[in-house]
User: Fold these one by one.
Assistant:
Number 1:
Amino acid sequence: MPVAITRIVLLTGKSEGTPLSIELLRYNPSLDITVAHDHSDLAQAAKKIDDSTRLISFCTSVIVPRETLEALPGPAYNFHPGPPERPGRYPSIFALYDHATQFGLTVHEMAPSVDSGHIVNAEWFDIPDGCDLIELESRTLIRLITVFRTLAPYLARFSLPLPHQNIHWQGRKTTQADCDGLCRVTPGMSAKESERRRRACGTYLAKVN
């Protein structure tokens, strides 16, 4: 008999923690939800993992240690702000730089290797003409929240794993260093390349220049 979920560790940003928690509590009001924002929070929350705990990661760059994943009784799930063909950091920046016409999101089981676990949900949408980084990330977040709401009744109550989809990760896994390198504009760069990077990197450009 599957063990009911009684505790959730929600790894996410400060602005997302409360609304996502409220959504989960709608379907299981007795849930004990611990919101973790960084590695320190996660380490403290991991000390209380038991056989009724689930870990959900939502749009965060915090990497969950192998030992934490192995301590959980079942799969942890990550809501990744990019489609399966764009694993890794800042997928939206690389999509815009590549002049991609589509983007999307991926929900997957977490594995020790980032963005490699079995996919349980993926969606795609068209990138509108003239879309910049702020708009693309906003559109992606709205869709991620919609998918979270769809899965919340199951995630909040049932410990059995979500069904795997016949969809697989593809493409190069981008890193923080890749992004830092892309989001630099140098004096000798052509105007066309400079503009391409400015559109893709948006406000992130100022952080590395």
Number 2:
Amino acid sequence: MENLLDIQDLHAVAGEKEILKGLNLKINKGETHVIMGPNGAGKSTTANVILNNPEYKKVSGKVVFEGEDISDLSTDKIAKEGVFMSFQSPVEIPGISTTNFLKYAKNKITDKPVKIFELRDQIQKYMEELNMNPKLIERNLNVGFSGGEKKKNEILQMLVLEPKLVILDETDSGLDVDAVRTVSKGIEMYKNEENAVLIITHNTRILENLKVDYVHILVDGKIVKTGDASLAQEIEENGYAQYK
């Protein structure tokens, strides 16, 4: 198994508050990992620190991606290396259509001019498979989209941009059953032996239709237990009390 992401003894703060307190996590190509934990445990912080969001500061430890220390790279460079993150609430961008956004993003990542007709065909195919409203593609990015449409749109971006590592941060929050199923389907369409997925969630619903390799329990800034998919079921039934 070839290692993709290796987080080593990571400590990070937001403002004055220490949130990650020695986090270790290894993800190999071809794997699907899940991080679960109570509110305030550091789940979203983990995602933001991997992508070097300036609101969070690494104090010590490092983030290694494909053998390269990316701890100090800027967020756009980390994205270019092949890390994609889906947010809890995707931003609206007036004045740029979803097609143009995808064309621009693909251009930036590959450093090659994008063939617009090929891109349109690819987008259309994925939208059909994800059961998305075809009109969304010409509308301004996420403007006036429902919560479910925004999430589907992010899954569409993930499929078109073909990153090496996808981080889904609470992608299932507030979604109805059909939208959750679409997100799960998109993840299955994306997954192969060369890439990996990290799902951050407090809800096991999104895991029902996915093959999950590892579940990690994050409590108070550290991973306190790692297991297989059955660990998520155990948390669903018993909560986090025994790990606090």
Number 3:
Amino acid sequence: PPKVKNGVSNFFNNLEDVETSINQLLQGKPKKSINDFSRFILNSTIGLAGLIDVASKMGLDRHEEDFGQTLAVWNIKSGPYIVLPFLGPSNTRDLLSRPISSFLSGTFSMDETDVKISLLALDALETRERLLDAETLIIGDEYLFIRDAYFQSREYEILNGEVEVDDFLESMEDIFKDN
């Protein structure tokens, strides 16, 4: 049901707020770090372990930062594109950052192996479900499409949505502009 699906997404987003907060500090964004840590505290307490996103209703925007983005901000090159089973598309920098991101996630410190595996499986299932609709957008060569989409998505995340102006597209706008 949609409410259960939304609650599961909120739960995992809440856990990611801790990692986001730490990475924002490492990237020199203390205000955003405080914002996302406040989100975690509010959603973990008032929001019933993060199942309800009360922080967004209170005006605290959600951000997403991971250690791969932090390494990119520190000018670590991305390296070659890699696709691994169960992990999907990545690059060397992001692949090597996964253990740090895993350590910063809320599930790392759990002692109960069964609970940890169940949460990881539920997270993977939720992520897969979220991406199902995106599969219908793939046109042409699937490998090239996913690779290009991955690189564009990571660049967008690293630049915090501030996309650089493409000179080619700018010149095309001038050609097709109505006079």
